[in-house]
Design goal:
- The protein is α+β, with helices and mostly antiparallel strands.
- It has a six-stranded antiparallel β-sheet with strand order 3-2-1-4-5-6. Strands 10-9-8-11-17-16 form a six-stranded mixed β-sheet, with helices on one face.
- The chain has nine helices and 18 strands.
- Helix 1 crosses helix 2 (about 80-95) and helix 3 packs parallel to helix 4.
């Protein structure tokens, strides 16, 4: 199926969107917008040197939002026939007639809409045959299983490829379309020693399959991480410096974006309410949004509402400069949209001078967290409590692995108590950050 590519070209998707807009106007809509999508992919998992699963997927959908003044209705369909499109528009209009008027509802201001769509190198097809995907998954798992005799079991190695194309259009004359791809390799294995077992994993994702690490590298990294966790011990309860490894540190940036997103703010459900223009982080802390990075995992020429994306500083010198808003949440807050309908676009946290080893030496004594368990984060209050595993650090070096611990604090204090950012940058979807060292958190056995 992946060899077939898209079933519809961009022009056809755009015509479907235009047909829906025309029908909405004919049926009395004062304004309308359409989002259409088509995607397909292949995923293969091998476990214990045999194929465990092969999944093909292909799907499409078209969503229509219509406005009757300031009343809104929305409907969607996966049937792209002319009749289905008309019925979807009419269903959205029927819903709008029963909704209450909302003075924040409506399309973006016309001046904010994207008029150009630069090529951001987001689409790199990988016409991967099923047999080739199986071979890659087996190579990845074999490398993990063969690295160390203590690797006793496998949760599998997976190869995934996905391509999609998107159209956004509205009755103000905006029409945009672009394709994307995303490919990944992952592996998870179990190490065993003296009847104790530890699991760990590794993965990589990229728009361009040619930029992925070799499958053997992914498997060997997963195996080394699993073996390194053998002999884990508990530690004493206390307040200690905590170092979040880069892949885990991205979650802290995620909590920040959630807290300063429009929905949480206008509902007054965020611990960072009314913090615009205030110091939230240390003075060395900077977060930039860069939506036009070539090949970026969260790059986009425009957001889901057709608003042109743009570079901006979200945090500068520790001070919060802006929120993450779509048109509706912006109007609720009396602010313009920040072109974040559908999410944020490539958040880059400014790196420091140290790699992970350097941050460990800077910390001296404390906890290096390499995995978080469960979810105990309250964005309303900022309370933070999560299970964790990792390594105890003494004299700037790993002393032993640790398990069955909880780390706790408040996000507001955690943000203020950041000591350093590593230069070991990890790209996790929309977020790019190095390891993050915090001054102190409660660590409980």
């Amino acid at each position: 199926m992946t060899e077939q590519g898209f079933l519809l070209d961009c022009a056809t998707l755009q015509q479907l969107a235009e047909d829906a807009l025309v029908h909405a106007r004919k049926q009395g809509a004062t304004a309308a917008e359409v989002n259409a999508h088509e995607g397909f992919g292949l995923s293969v998992t091998a476990r214990q040197r045999v194929v465990e699963s092969i999944e093909y997927n292909r799907g499409k959908d078209l969503g229509v939002s219509v406005y009757l003044g300031q009343r809104t209705g929305h409907a969607s369909t996966s049937d792209f026939s002319r009749r289905a499109l008309r019925e979807t528009v009419e269903s959205a209009l029927a819903i709008a007639r029963f909704t209450a008027a909302d003075n924040c509802a409506g399309l973006p201001e016309e001046t904010l809409l994207a008029r150009e769509s630069p090529d951001l190198a987001l689409h790199h097809p990988w016409r991967l045959a099923t047999e080739e995907a199986i071979a890659l998954a087996l190579r990845c798992e074999n490398a993990a299983l063969g690295l160390d005799s203590r690797i006793s079991n496998s949760e599998g190695a997976s190869v995934s490829t996905h391509e999609a194309q998107f159209v956004a259009a509205n009755s103000l004359g905006f029409m945009g379309c672009y394709p994307v791809s995303r490919h990944s390799l992952s592996c998870s294995v179990i190490a065993e020693q003296d009847a104790a077992m530890q699991r760990d994993y590794w993965y990589e994702s990229n728009r361009n399959a040619g930029m992925l690490l070799a499958p053997e590298s992914i498997g060997e990294t997963a195996a080394r991480r699993a073996v390194s966790r053998l002999g884990a011990k508990k530690i004493q309860t206390g307040v200690f410096p905590v170092l979040f490894e880069a892949p885990i540190a991205a979650s802290l940036l995620g909590h920040f974006t959630q807290a300063v997103s429009g929905g949480a703010l206008y509902r007054k459900a965020s611990f960072l309410l009314d913090c615009l223009g205030q110091s939230v982080f240390p003075a060395f802390f900077n977060v930039r949004e860069r939506p036009h990075l070539p090949g970026g995992l969260a790059s986009a020429p425009f957001d889901r509402e057709g608003v042109m994306t743009y570079d901006r500083d979200v945090v500068r010198d520790g001070v919060l400069q802006g929120y993450f808003l779509n048109v509706y949440s912006g109007r609720k807050l009396g602010l313009p949209t920040t072109a974040n309908a559908g999410g944020c676009h490539n958040l880059l946290l400014t790196s420091g001078e140290h790699d992970l080893s350097g941050l460990m030496r800077l910390m001296g004594r404390g906890l290096l967290v390499t995995e978080l368990l469960g979810y105990g984060v309250n964005i309303v209050t900022g309370d933070y409590s999560r299970g964790a595993t990792g390594f105890w650090i003494e004299n700037g070096e790993i002393a032993h692995p640790v398990e069955e611990i909880t780390i706790a604090g408040s996000l507001a204090a955690m943000f203020r108590n950041i000591v350093a950012i590593g230069n070991d940058v990890w790209i996790s979807g929309a977020k790019q950050t190095g390891s993050i060292l915090l001054e102190g958190m409660t660590v409980a056995a």
